[in-house]
Amino acid sequence: MANWYQSQSDSFKKETLKRLIVGGVGVISLMLLLLSLNIGGKKPRSLPSTSLNGTQPLVMQGGDPYIRALMRTISASEANDPRPYSIIYGGKQVSDLKEHPNLCVPIVAGPNVGNCTTAAGRYQMLNITWDEKAKRYHPRPSGFLLWKSYSFEPEFQDAVVHAWLSDPQAWGVNLSELLRQGKLNEVRRRLSGTWTSLGYGIETNSMTGQLPRIYQKMLREELQR
After folding, report:
1. d(CA 118, CA 155)
2. What pLDDT band is residue 206 in, cutting at 50, 70 and 90?
3. What pLDDT was estimated at residue 168?
4. Distance between CA atoms of 71 and 76, rounded to whole angstroms?
5. Are 11 and 39 in contact, with CB atoms under 8 Å apart?
6. Which residues pair with 93 in a beta bridge?
7. Which residues of 1-27 are buried (b: 16+ CB within 10 A; e: fewer)?
8. For residue 219, what pLDDT band results from cuts at 50, 70 and 90?
9. From the CB of residue 32, how many other CB atoms can be counted at a distance below 10 Å?
10. Residues facing 120 on adjacent strands
11. Taking 60 as the threshold, does the pLDDT of residue 41 lie above it?
């Protein structure tokens, strides 16, 4: 019926709808018909997506559930994609994660437009940030002495960021303890210099306002593991 209706003129659609209402068509039938119509040739407004790409469970096993929930919240905002570990700025996927991709992609919006960024992976880490943090927190570097390399595979992205966020000396405060006290906004403020989409920084995105709700959902999941 819907396909036949779609082929009719707008005036025919409107007149038919009027007759249906006046004739007392059942509420359920009328609602189904309304959903199938496209009066005026405009696409019906789609409902907001409930998908939370980027919040998939971490690859790493174990760890602090509060920090794990925070990591998933960060990635929901920074790498909102079904495959967050291999995404680089701009949405392109890379296949080689033996090392940080280190591809400088032009920034097309925001206060840094005109520059380029090497942001990559689930936590959109710059190559210089990854090199610095991997040297300190990577659990299994390869090579020796000055010739070490640091795999950017998913488990190591998680491991490095978990260790970094769990280090009170790195942030001047125990982030896990703040989270246990329910002080998510304070944590977001402290991290905003690194991940600006968390809020309180120089730019936000469409996910920023949803982060408190996302964090609570991630925390419930992590506490149940």
Report:
1. 20
2. confident
3. 98
4. 9
5. no
6. 87
7. eeeebeeeeeeebeeebeeeeeeeeee
8. very high
9. 12
10. 88, 125
11. no
How far is it, in rounded angstroms, from Cα 174 to Cα 154?
A: 25
Other CB atoms within 10 A of residue 198 CB: 26
Q: Rounded to the nearest 10 degrees, what angle do helices 154-165 and 127-137 cross at? A: 80
pLDDT band for position 44 (cuts 50, 70, 90): very low
Higher per-residue confidence, 33 vs 123: 123
d(CA 121, CA 2): 44
Q: How many C-beta atoms surround the C-beta of residue 126 within 10 A?
A: 17
Sequence spans of domains, the chain: 2-41, 65-85+127-223
This prediction's pTM? 0.76
CA distances (Å), 76 to each of 31, 57, 105, 205, 211, in order?
Answer: 35, 11, 21, 11, 8
The full 3-state SS of the chain, as one line of letters, equals CHHHHHCCCHHHHHHHHHHHHHCCCCHHHHHHHHHHCCHHHCCCCCCCCCCCCCCCCCCCCCCCHHHHHHHHHHHHHHCCCCCHHHEECCCCECCCCCCCCCCCEECCCCCCECEEECCECCCCECHHHHHHHHHHHCCCCECCHHHCECCCCHHHHHHHHHHHHCCHHHHCCCHHHHHHCCCHHHHHHHHCCCCHHHCCCCCCCCCHHHHHHHHHHHHHHHHCC
pLDDT in tens, 74-129: 999 999 999 999 999 999 999 999 999 999 999 988 888 989 999 999 999 999 99
Q: Which amino acid, 188?
A: R
- CA 79-161-138 angle, to 5 degrees, is 125
